[in-house]
Design a protein that fits this description.
CATH architecture of the largest domain in chain A: 3-Layer(aba) Sandwich
Number of domains of chain A: 3
Number of helices of chain A: 8
CATH superfamily of the largest domain in chain B: HUPs
CATH class of the largest domain in chain A: Alpha Beta
Radius of gyration of chain A: 24 Å
Structural class of chain A: alpha+beta
Largest sheet of chain B: 6 strands, mixed
Order of helices and strands of chain B: HHEHEHEHHEHEEHEEEEHHH
Shape of chain B: globular
Mean pLDDT of chain A: 87
Helix content of chain B: 25-40%
Radius of gyration of chain B: 19 Å
Oligomer: heterodimer
Low-confidence stretches of chain B: 1-10, 292-296
Low-confidence stretches of chain A: 1-13
Distance between the termini of chain B: 43 Å
Order of helices and strands of chain A: EHHHEEHEHEHEHEHEEEEEEEEEEEEEEE
Number of domains of chain B: 2
CATH class of the largest domain in chain B: Alpha Beta
Mean pLDDT of chain B: 86
Largest interface: A-B, 82 and 72 residues
Shape of chain A: globular
Number of strands of chain A: 22
Strand content of chain B: 5-15%
CATH topology of the largest domain in chain A: Rossmann fold
Structural class of chain B: alpha/beta
Strand order of the largest sheet of chain A: 2-3-1-4-5-6
Number of helices of chain B: 11
Number of strands of chain B: 10
């Protein structure tokens, strides 16, 4: 009997917020089957969709419905037999809403996984129980760690093909832990399962009775929400300045609202703040959410801040709490781990645009350090960067940025690189 | 501090709060990055949600964009009335461009007089984009609607021909959206990408949003055609030998009369619709969209041609 009720209780409001997670693995690990099973067992798949994949399964001569077809892609992909890029899927257990970022396992793997991982709070790393920890397991774990995903779940899949053998599971856990320690990965949980048979995903099934831990869905249900740590520093990049200038409404005549999202920490009316990079100080006079005054604002809320003084603040400025500013650096040079995403290699002679929070500046490469080989986890000297390469780099900046290190703050430590000739996003950086 | 805020401070945001905050962030990025955006407003439920989000994003200021509707001329009159009333109530500018005008200009040619005008909206939309020089259009599309949408970016790049190239999408990382375009190119921004049909209805309930009456159960003459209900109207009359039935129906999605089918339902309140949506066995488009039934890749094809 399942420990949780698996039929979604939609009538009850979802109260545990939202979790974004990423699934890492290739088709061979049963990743599509795992996603299909999660969607199917949480009733996120409706009859007409199921009917369509039943027809396809039949046409392909399969005996049972192939749940992996649920994640089958676009016509453009089927024609070429490739998966183009990250797909986003949704389900809900009645207590929490989930967004899955499903990154393809093969072509352009790094580029896609980095993209999918950038918004994830948890990663499920799939291991085939018959094969154990492979090079790709290390690669997935390394990227998940590099992208700052706080929680990893190692799903040892295809337990049905090893006779649901406990010793196989335990051996794989041991192997993985040894390697995770090497990488410095902290929070890892393990779950044995069979996505094909549905054991230990949503239902416990009858085959893994030796496993006392939570099912996969229980792990997802109880994973801590982002920003649940209490000692975050307040960061508020200004997105837009609201100046209604309504001459006929004296209340709005001098209204200047600084609109943006709290990227981390929290703020309350009366708090003293500092605007960076200008370093002007003021007090929070009001906090509005959807036009209504509130006493405080917390991480991930989109709000409007009103300040006590008429100081110059515009898009791209960062409001921090006075006293919280220590780690926020105002700088014209950044060092970062850079993942190159563009077709054309990084050109050391060219100026690129860097966008970080709501700020944009021109940037010139100021040195490449070691390149990280994500297959061997070895570092090698590098003299250039091509698509899917990751290396330590430095950039000189035309305008100062207000940054934290990525390990401290994913929102203010991240940036993208834009090629002005195409306007394409060609790089993703994590500030050191 | 009230109890709700206390709870929010302890547990973070609930799922609707999170989705709302993300959508507001996206709308403000459009306003911050684009010189001349527009918000596509049809009077349908998704775009009604967009308007509420825009109010939350920009009030007490005005919206930094006009509302734009591409009218096929075959919309339900209740929806058009609702559209006009809502724009007026908000005091925001509404621009309407119609497929009819593209037909008179000769840029849209129907194969036959009764061909659905739905897909031809793309032409009229591109003409409106050209006429006003819009560099971004904000739309109410959601990734859960259809698999061509599941892979679309929140800021989706369209070339000079309005085309979407699924193989050549910009990587989209963190919440660092890239809305940069050259002249003639265009961004489609989708603030409610991460919402499901159920999220939309829950939000409508929470915010107490008004909707056109045809979203709620009402009696309507219909014929059964291809497994779907087809409303009988002047524009879509019953065929020879087709039996007209009077059924209690509602629309789950509202668009061109010729391609949007109602479903049988007794749900005459938002609360009843939420219960129905939570327990339905058919997807929103599967039950209601004649245009997506053509083939598995129908939406993908239309998007490549510049559709929303």
């Amino acid at each position: 009997m399942s420990a949780i009720e698996h039929i979604p209780e939609f009538s009850r409001p979802i109260d545990n917020g939202l979790l974004r997670f990423l699934t890492c693995g290739s088709v061979d690990d049963g990743k599509s089957t795992l996603i299909g099973r999660l969607l199917y067992d949480t009733k996120a798949i409706l009859a007409d969709t199921l009917h369509a994949i039943e027809k396809t399964s039949l046409r392909r001569g399969l005996e049972a419905v192939d749940l992996s077809l649920l994640t089958d892609g676009l016509q453009a992909e089927r024609e070429q037999g490739i998966t183009i890029d990250v797909a986003y899927r949704y389900f809900s257990t009645g207590r929490r809403k989930y967004i899955i970022a499903d990154a393809p396992g093969h072509e352009q793997y790094t580029r896609n996984m980095v993209t999918a991982a950038s918004t994830a709070d948890l990663a499920i790393i799939l291991i085939d129980a018959r094969k154990g920890v492979l090079t790709q397991t290390r690669r997935h774990s390394c990227l998940a760690h590099l992208m700052g995903i706080p929680h990893l779940v190692v799903a040892v899949n295809k337990m049905d093909l090893v006779g649901y053998d406990q010793t196989v599971f335990e051996r794989i856990c041991g192997e993985y832990l040894a390697f995770a320690r090497q990488l410095g990965i902290g929070d890892v949980r393990f779950v044995p399962l069979s996505a094909l048979k549905g054991d230990m995903l949503v239902d416990r099934g009858d085959n893994l009775s030796w496993y006392p831990g939570p099912t996969l869905i229980e792990i997802l249900q109880s994973a801590p929400a982002a920003h649940s740590g209490c000692d975050e520093r307040f960061r508020f990049p200004v997105q837009y300045v609201c100046r209604p200038r309504k001459a006929d409404d004296p209340a709005l005549h001098d209204y200047r609202g600084f609109m943006g999202r709290v990227e981390s920490g929290e703020i309350a009316v009366g708090d003293e703040v500092l605007v960076l990079p200008s370093e002007r100080r003021s007090l929070i006079k009001g906090i509005h959410v959807g036009g209504k005054p509130q006493p405080r604002a917390i991480a991930e809320q989109s709000v409007t801040l009103l300040l006590d003084d008429e100081i110059d603040v515009s898009r791209g400025d960062m409001i921090v709490r006075a006293g919280d500013q220590e780690s926020a650096r105002v700088t014209r040079r950044i060092e970062a781990m850079l993942c190159w995403l563009g077709d054309r290699p990084l050109d050391a002679q060219r100026k690129y645009l860097i966008r970080q929070t709501t700020r944009e500046t021109r940037a010139l490469l100021d040195g490449i350090g070691q390149r990280l080989d994500i297959n061997t986890l070895q570092e090698h000297p590098a003299d250039g960067l091509a698509m899917n390469d990751i290396a330590r780099v430095a950039f000189k900046l035309a305008q100062p940025l207000v940054v934290d290190s990525y390990t401290e703050n994913r929102a203010t430590g991240a940036f993208i690189v834009i090629d002005e000739s195409t306007n394409n996003t060609v790089g993703a950086g994590m500030i050191l | 501090m009230n109890a709700t805020t206390l709870q929010a401070a302890r547990h973070g945001l609930d799922h609707l709060d999170w989705l709302e905050a993300e959508a507001i962030h996206i709308l403000r990025e459009v306003a911050g990055q684009c010189a001349n955006p527009a918000l596509l407003f049809s009077g349908g439920k998704d775009s009604i949600v967009l308007l509420r989000l825009a109010e939350k994003a920009f009030r007490p200021g005005r919206f930094p964009f006009p509302l734009l509707h591409i009218d096929t001329g075959h919309n339900y009159p209740e929806v058009i009335d609702f559209r006009d009333a809502r724009a007026c109530q908000l005091g925001e500018r509404l621009i309407v461009r119609s497929v009819e005008n593209s037909i008179s200009r000769g840029t849209v040619r129907l194969k036959s007089a009764d061909e659905s005008r739905n897909k031809h909206q793309s032409v009229t939309l591109l003409e409106a984009i050209g006429e006003f020089g819009f560099d971004a259009c904000i739309g109410g599309a959601r990734r859960d609607e259809e698999k061509a949408r599941a892979k679309e970016r929140i800021f989706s790049f369209r070339d000079e021909f309005g085309g979407w190239d699924p193989k050549n999408q910009r990587p989209e990382l963190w919440d660092l959206f890239n809305a940069r375009v050259h002249t003639g190119e265009n961004i489609r921004a989708f603030p409610i990408s991460n919402w499901t049909e159920l999220d939309v209805w829950q939000y409508i309930a929470r915010e107490g949003l008004a909707l056109p009456a045809i979203y709620f159960a009402h009696w309507r003459p219909v014929v059964r055609r291809g497994g779907l209900l087809q409303p009988v109207t002047d524009i879509s009359p019953a065929g020879d030998g087709e039996a007209v039935e009077l059924l209690r129906v509602r629309f789950r999605t509202v668009g061109d009369i010729t391609c949007t089918a109602p479903v049988e339902s007794d749900a005459d309140t938002v609360e009843k619709i939420i219960v129905e949506t939570a327990t339905t066995t058919i997807t929103e488009r599967g039950a209601t969209r004649l245009d997506d039934q053509a083939s598995e890749a129908a939406m993908e094809q239309r998007k490549k041609e510049g559709y929303f």
